Amino acid sequence: MPATPRIDITPAQEALAPVEPCTLIIFGGSGDLARRRLIPALYNLMLDGLLPANFAVLGLGRKSMTNEDFRATLREGVLTHSRQPLKEDRWSVFTERLFYLAGGNEDRQTYAALKARVEDIERQFGLPGNRIFYLSIPPSSFTAVCEGLEHSELAVRRARPYARIIVEKPVGRDLASAQQINAVTGRVFDESQIFRIDHYLGKETVQNLMVVRFANSIFEPIWNHKYIDHVQITVSEAEGVGTRATYYEEAGALRDMVQNHMLQLLCLVAMEPPYSLDPDVVRNAKMEVLRCLRPITGKDVEMFSVRAQYAAGVVGENPVPGYRREVGVKPDSTTETYVALKCFVENWRWSGVPFYLRTGKALPQRASEVAVQFKDIPQILFNAMPQHPQPANVLALRIQPEEGLSLRIVSRVPGTREQTHPVEMAFKYAEVFGRPSPEAYERLLLDVMAGDASRFMRRDAVEASWAWITKILEAWQQQGTRWLPEYPAGACGPVEADRLIQQDGRTWRPL
Ligand SMILES: NC(=O)c1ccc[n+]([C@@H]2O[C@H](COP(=O)([O-])OP(=O)(O)OC[C@H]3O[C@@H](n4cnc5c(N)ncnc54)[C@H](OP(=O)(O)O)[C@@H]3O)[C@@H](O)[C@H]2O)c1
User: Fold this and answer.
1) Is the peptide bond between 279 and the residue preceding it cis, with omega within 30 degrees of 0?
2) What distance in angstroms lies between residue 26's CA and the mean position of ligand 1's atoms?
């Protein structure tokens, strides 16, 4: 059987809906996210011919910078972080559309200056007044910005020219704070104008989850408790806390990874087939999963969750200090850098099927995947010897580093002896489609310009996932733990997490 031939996709084939000229206003334009992700994403969209020919970007921040300083910083960001190399001729066209304005988010004068500047830029380039406001700032500033936009009448509830707002994660740190952010954004903008970003939803394999399930006839009939033994969702990071201790100390792995990315992955695996691809129909189907998640409360938290911190160790060849010794971390911190959960989706399809979730920092490598393990075959024929059980079939969707998909099956070893061995049928996006996938932020920025909210979090889903997470946080707090279990940096996690899954007769997939 020949391997899948390489298929070259040209950027033009990718364009879905035409996008109208617009101005992107980035609150936090002088920050890390804008430099490393947002501007490189826009630059790549331009190279691929997907950005509207007429566009402008206005970055805001507190730092005092000229347009030239701003452009130089962003150039360096593109040089280091862009998927495609910097091409001088294209960059010089792009860079003329980048502007900067200094001002504090809490300062009302900022919004008067912003309004004047946006109108200036729109006049200069003949832009039609479509505006996207990107909140790439700490959540503590979200309210001030929404109120500033409301007060200055930059926030308008109309379809044409449009005003849209992108809200970066984290949307809150528990249910109450998420509700508060949603209340203020919801007072100023209509839900249809709000795009809550979860960049995992822009990743190719994550988008492919729905395609695998609903564009192939072989999976859906067996996608249920009769055939699936369990599901493992892993988001493993090799990096320690690095320079983000201030943020991370307040967040921890559960808030940082599970509340958003991992629950969204779980929803995509577990949801019922939506009747159309309409954004709200898909989001309703995901919402149903969140409603069915069995709460982990009170004493159950000991049976269904494990949290831990990394101790000193080595990741790759790099020595890593223990979490409590990292700069900016309290020496008696109880912030978890690792979490493992055993969850149940309590509906007909998933009755009794555990979903094991694990995520952590300072693990051996950066790897994210969803693995669906099917039930064991009966103990007859090739599986007759209990001391040599045949490994179960596993469908694994790898989200990073190399996006792709593999199916583990058992095969006969060539030769005269009756021997079997597990083998993997695999495909990698970059090999089959001839180039690496676009970055998640490219897809998502384009979606906002096109007004397509499918890959964004709706208000009810954000609050439902926070409601579920907050119960775990409260149960942890009731435990009153002063020391968390530890795992050496570079190890796959704490022994307590191994026990969580081993007590069910299962094991984690290797990292
Ligand atoms: N970096 C990432 O990879 C990443 C990933 C996912 C989500 N996020 C989220 O994205 C947001 C931005 O992250 P970041 O990494 O870019 O943070 P950052 O590097 O600390 O940048 C924060 C930005 O916000 C501006 N800012 C902060 N307080 C302000 C105020 N009161 N008035 C005006 N401007 C203010 C800063 O301006 P000055 O520096 O000029 O003061 C800076 O431009 C955060 O909510 C973060 O959680 C970041």
Assistant:
1) no
2) 10
